[in-house]
Amino acid sequence: MTAHSLHSMFGWLVWRDLILAWRRRADVLATVFFFVIVVSLFPLGIGPEREILRAIAPGVVWVAALLASMLSLGRIFGNDYQDGTLEQLLLTPQSTYLIVLGKILAQWLVSEVPLVIIAPLLGLQFGLAQNSLAIMVVSLLLGTPVLSLIGSIGAALTLGLRAANVLVALLVLPLYIPVLIFGTGAVQAGIGGTSPEPYLLLLGATLIVTLVFAPWATSAALKISVE
Amino acid sequence: MLEAVNLGCTRGDRRLFKGLNFSIQPGELIELRGANGSGKTSLLRILSGLSAPAEGEVRWQGKDIRSLAEEYSGAVSYLAHQNGVKDELSAIENLRIACGVSGNVLSKADAQTALEQVGLSRQQHLPARSLSAGQKRRVALARLLKSSATLWLLDEVLTSLDDTAIKLSRQFIGDHLRKGGLAIIATHQELDLVAQRIQRIELSP
Fold it and tell me: B58 with B50: CB under 8 angstroms?
């Protein structure tokens, strides 16, 4: 197996998932709308006090991002499991680690990147200044891949179970807590005028650790679920 | 080439089979028979490496397939009950993507030829959602045809195929065996295939 053909197999896999997401774009749009609506409900419910809104903005955006990303977890492996393509993927001469990594990458591109793009617009509703918005985007860019990576473990473990959606939430949400704390911490630091750097570094470190270990755990879980 | 040593399989508390030994060489065919629920699919999944046997091991060229992992996957093509065909993709996209993902890139022309061989040239751009069960099976057959695998594991390969397609699949399997391939086929129907050696394994609970 040459490096070139590995590279091309990985490319085909990601391409496949992107096409499939495009053909089912209603699912993806639903996630984005969910994020937009949840975040927009808070200013409506709380009223126009600028100080309060600004104080809750980081938490609201981040919690909404966690919930929205949870909605898309079932799709990472669910459809492929049902029509038998997951088995076929596991039987390709590609390591399961890379297959999982490819699927997570596609899920992140399709379901999380739109959230990152739209978050600054939503932040405007909370009266956030430009530099706080920029920090929010950076923190989301570092944090959302962690959500996909950790979420994939839950998705693989609950594959084919009846109450999969509820179980995924119970399994995965507690593991999202560090990301939530570092992510909101960074934005709050930006609003308060201190340096967000320590938080962003912690997010980056979390990303590297999960990038190494999560696909491995997900592969192990997938093999059990498919068996 | 492929060797099953003392294989045993349990599903829950129930023992499906145990102490199963056989071996198969290039150009040979194994027909798996047995009533519904006798463990044909379980055996094929163990042979494909998707499930682990409860006891015993499967050896490919003398080595345990568990230790070969991806190296073994490259040598095997498994056609399961489910076709592994994506409803959202057209027949030709299904074929090209399935091949690309397994590392043998298929040009558009090659894919078209393969679909023509299985009699789907008119339907190649239809989304698989609008294909019939038999036509989806044909897409899976085209994938098998284009795989570079030496060992074919086929689970009820003739299900939902019409007479022409059954004849075609017999011809494909025959060609594969003549070229030195191996095939293990679970079936209820008569296969009428010619091979260097045909073994029949009857699974009984």
Answer: no
Last residue of a domain, one of B131, B148, B165: B148
| Backbone dihedral angles phi then psi of residue A33, each to the nearest 5 degrees | -65, -40
Q: Could you tell me the CATH number of the domain that includes residue B59? A: 3.40.50.300
Q: Are B111 and B96 in contact (CB under 8 A)?
A: yes
> B186 lies in which domain range?
1-75+152-205
B97 vs chain A: nearest CA distance in angstroms? 6
Per CB-CB distance under 8 Å, the chain A contacts of B48 are 91
Would you say B43 and B185 are in contact if contact means Cβ atoms under 8 Å apart? no
Cβ of A91 within 8 Å of Cβ of B80? The answer is: no
Kindly state the tokens that stand for A73. Answer: 């977890």
Q: Does A90 touch chain B (CB under 8 A)?
A: yes
Distance from CA of A221 to the nearest CA of B (A): 13
Q: Which residues pair with B63 in a beta bridge?
A: B60
**Cβ-based neighbour number of residue A207 at 10 Å:** 18
pLDDT for residue B120 is more than 70: yes
> What residues in A contact B82, CB-CB < 8 Å?
83-84, 87
A23 in Cβ contact with B128 (< 8 Å): no
Name residue A159's amino acid.
Answer: L
Q: What angle do CA A148, A149, A155 make, to 5 degrees?
A: 75
Boundary (domain end) residue, out of B106, B132, B148: B148
Chain-wide mean pLDDT for chain B? 89
What is the complex's ipTM, to 2 decimals?
0.90
Q: Cα–chain-centroid distance for residue A22?
A: 18
Beta-carbon separation of B103 and A1 below 8 A: yes
pTM beyond 0.80, yes or no: yes
Written as tens digits, the pLDDT of chain A (227 aa) is 556 676 788 999 999 999 999 999 999 999 999 999 999 999 999 888 888 999 999 999 999 999 999 999 989 999 999 999 999 999 988 889 999 999 999 999 999 999 999 999 999 989 899 999 999 999 999 999 999 999 999 999 999 888 888 899 999 999 999 999 999 999 999 999 899 999 999 999 999 999 999 999 999 999 998 88
CA distance B13 to B34: 20
Q: Do B78 and A87 touch (CB under 8 A)?
A: yes
Closest alpha carbon to B98 in B109, B87, B110, B106: B106
Same domain, B97 and B134: yes
